[in-house]
Amino acid sequence: MKTVRCAIYTRKSSDEGLEQSFNSLDAQREACGAYILSQASEGWSALPEIYDDGGLSGGTLERPALKRLLAEVAAGRVDIIVVYKVDRLTRSLFDFAKLVETFDAAGTSFVSVTQSFNTTTSMGRLTLNMLLSFAQFEREVTAERIRDKIAASKARGMWMGGTPPLGYAPNDRSLVIVEEHASLVRHLFARYLALGSVRRLMDELAQSAVTVPVRTTVSGKPLGGGAFTRGQLYQILKNVVYTGRIGHKDKAYPGLHPAIIDTATFDAVQAMLADHLQGHRSKASAAESSPLAGRIVDASGEPLVATHATKNKVRHRYYVSRALQQGTSASGLRIPAREIEALVAERVQQLVRQPLELATQAALDVQVHQVAELHARCEALDQQLAERRSPALLAILKQVQVDDAAVTLTCDTAALAKVLGMGQRADAPATIEISCAARLTRSGRALRLVQDNGATVQATPDRSLVRLLVQARRWWGMLRTGEISTTELAVREGVTSSYVSRVVRLAFLAPAVTEAILAGRQRAGVTVASLTAEGAIAADWQAQIAALLPARRR
């Protein structure tokens, strides 16, 4: 009789009681071992390895013992996985679908000893899907109840926790005024109305050495201590809590805490902020928009400013370091706008083109019957992202950070789930990062953004290179007839004979290289000077392709 190798997997969500000599994990293992022993007549035999995950949630697959077990399954060393209950293996329907796919590929099944089914039968799989669906429904109902409770509590004016705004300290379900900080808040509102600009207010505070007061959270984490930023000032000036109200989504309710700012002052500040925002939008619409404005920063987190230059009636847009734009520094970034925008859109599209990987990273709550729908929605989103100023892209993208050799995108997972029309698990991360190797380099007279394989981000034909190839074909056409020599041609064109020879050889470039140059897809750094340098072009076409075209990505 063939031996059926059985691996026992146990899990407990909390670490409470694990220090005992006989704990929940031991009880689960003992029950599973007894079940395997009862199937000895079928050839079942328990493997000696122990796969215990103590104090780990079943809502994620990031568990050490489970990873070891999956590695053994992939290696073909496990026939059946035995668990005490199915939720010991996973509490997520989407994770279960991935596990079943892994098990099927390795020819492995699993059995729950306290539930009368196993995945070796179709009825067992149906029952399992039903149980997991009800478990997921229960979690979603619980989450809805918590959200409803928070909404009802805020409607009654209660403070529902978190870091209190500057000027307040928590007091049970309400807030009390910290007068030292409250006076600073009143000063900020008054000075903004007087100066009429958040930037001027920030500069005034910096000149006066006014910093963010140092505070400590309930958990003991220190806050503040640095200079006020524009974001912090906007957050303070827009916070309805200072008027004695509690905000929830788009509504505000009378709070149980006292006000620091009177309603008239707060409304005046909101009106001024709205006017400035409308004026900014009007200016932006008057010129070609820069979709990454407000989202793109340098390696130190300093925002880059959208600007442009006009040459020969052609408008060229850039994202520039503020110090470089204002002339206070000779160093900084100056990035071609269209190239960085194309790179950002391409990288987000690459993420969307892998729906299951995307669902895992963003912790999307995708049920088994929704997998095909997820693929269809990702395909539709991929087409939307192809637009330069795609509303979907702007909703997903939180920040673009440009370093010396890499560009890192930070994407909002909640916005991504909303765009795709999918839910998220409770343990979903707020953001995910996409990093791509790219550097800023000069190609001829132009500044280009180049990827790690040597390709420029945006395929733009170089007119001087195209003219050079045309000239090479024209000169070769004249020389091949034999009616004129290289020396005579050089004299007529006003160049040297060696230059004519170096140009004419470009008529014999590999077809792939010629096509790439005409389409603007050559390797960055390929210029007229580099192509006409002495000994620059190899005779072998494969060598030309390796030297002049971007490397293929593996």
Description:
Helix 6 packs across helix 9 and helix 11 runs antiparallel to helix 13. The protein has 554 residues and is of the alpha/beta class. The relative contact order is 0.05. Strands 1, 2, 3, 4 and 5 form a five-stranded parallel sheet that branches. Helix content is 45%, strand content 18%.
Could you tell me the mean pLDDT?
83
Low-confidence blocks of residues: 281-288
Q: First CA to last CA: what distance?
A: 46 Å
Would you tell me the structural class of the helices and strands?
Answer: alpha/beta
The value of Rg in angstroms is: 32 Å
Taken as a percent bin, the fraction of beta residues is 15-25%
Record field, number of beta strands: 21
Biggest beta-sheet profile: 5 strands, parallel
Q: What is the molecular shape?
A: flat
Q: Helicity level, as a percent range?
A: 40-55%
Short description:
The chain is an alpha/beta fold. Strands 1, 2, 3, 4 and 5 form a five-stranded parallel beta sheet that branches.
